[in-house]
Amino acid sequence: MSFPEGFVWGAATAAFQIEGATTADGRTASIWDTFCQVPGAVVGGDTGDPAADHYYRVDEDVQLMVDLGLHAYRFSTAWPRIRPDAGPVNQAGLDFYSRLVDKLLENNITPWLTLYHWDLPQTLEDAGGWANRDTAYRFAEYAESVVGALGDRVVNWTTLNEPWCSSLLSYAAGIHAPGRQEPEAAVAAVHHLLLAHGLATAAIREQAPDAKVGITLNMYPIIPANPDDPADTDAARRLDGLQNRIFLDPVFKGEYPADIVEDLEPYGFSKHIRENDLEIISAPLDQLGVNYYAEHFVSGHPAPEAEAPVQTNGRRPTGSPWVGAEHVTFPSRGLPRTDMDWEVEPDGLYKVLKRVHDDYPSIPLYVTENGAAYVDAFEDDGSINDVERRDYIASHLRAAHKAIREGVDLRGYFAWSLMDNFEWAEGYAKRFGIVHVDYDTQVRTPKMSAMWYSQVARGNALAATVAP
């Protein structure tokens, strides 16, 4: 099962999840540094230091990529490392990423840079965070600083990673930093993140006219439990709007979906939209990153267990990210699940790619994240035979290949993640890496999935015998 010539095979990480060194060389606190100190916010009370100690192990980690035969490396730059407290540029922070980029290029690995993967400077959160319109302009300044330093060597730029998480999961549900449960702030954050994307796109274009600019969205098919039940179809409409269309439509159509604007009017959504905002947000892009992990199978009816008391197991209470649709439930379909308790449904990736191809302007697509957390165990010979992870990736690559066969312009795939790391509110309890990290010794051990993925990347093809 061959992929098109020039198809990009890579792996992805995020700064806060792997770097550690949270106070080194001028870096100041991000919202995640602060959130990690909140009792019950992160499993085990884990923090982002030392994470995978990548800040001090860049050479070793780039060599890992070389050994695996990766074409590209998707990473993020840390805002509080480059502009601590959203203030003046910290040259030491820029120098770190400059060395990383040079090291990648020396080894024929294409750097794929994401400007924002959730590490907002705490100083800006203290001033309102993404609920404050001013944050979008501070982000544009930060983007300008990074492009000014790296734009001569980095071609592929992503403005934001998964703004759904940075807004609804973080400001409505309180599951991610900064942990607020304020629906009005969450819908403001949706718009201000998109405005930040548009302003950053302009900043990149101005300084690096040949750059390829995109945004990465986490998109999921939303499936009504009973397509003949109006309550279920309305639940699916609402969640599709909040998960997918509220980001796709303004970026590619220059407008918000009217039904979702109406749904969010009780929370003051439209008051944040000013003249020319949508023109800024919908500036033409060169590519779109698609992150996919699971489908959402939804119902507008209460779940049978809804009356049971919620067990937090020491975790702080959290809310729903679905502003205006908090009543929606997620019945089980009995599908296999990952260690994150997410359903495994590879065909959902095909559906997402095909939908974007059909419903939005033709734009090159890249799967910028796809992978699975499973419990890993060392064999007697020191290897990690992670068959489930390999099969998960293989089955999703089959779905991607199906989309390509049907005319979808998919140009690359980045496995999530290159290595085990700090998995946000799950701390170090969940492992997504194709490379194992011993958090006590920081020893890296490629898992079986890494060796298999290396063969796929080198051959630009998927063996027909794997994961039917």
Structure description:
It is an enzyme of class 3 (hydrolase). The active site is at 162 (proton donor), 369 (nucleophile). Its EC number is 3.2.1.21. This is Beta-glucosidase. By secondary structure, the protein is an alpha/beta fold. It has one domain (8-459): TIM Barrel, CATH 3.20.20.80. The chain is built from 15 helices and 12 strands. It has helices spanning 15-18, 31-35, 58-68, 79-82, 91-106, 122-126, 134-150, 163-172, 183-207, 230-253, 258-264, 277-281, 347-359, 387-405, 448-459, and strands spanning 8-12, 72-76, 110-116, 156-161, 212-218, 222-224, 287-291, 296-298, 365-369, 410-416, 435-437, 444-446. The longest helix is centred in the middle third of the chain and has 25 residues, at 183-207.
Task: Pick out its properties.
468 residues, alpha/beta, TIM Barrel, 8-stranded parallel barrel, 12 strands, globular, glycosidase, Beta-glucosidase, cellulose degradation, polysaccharide degradation
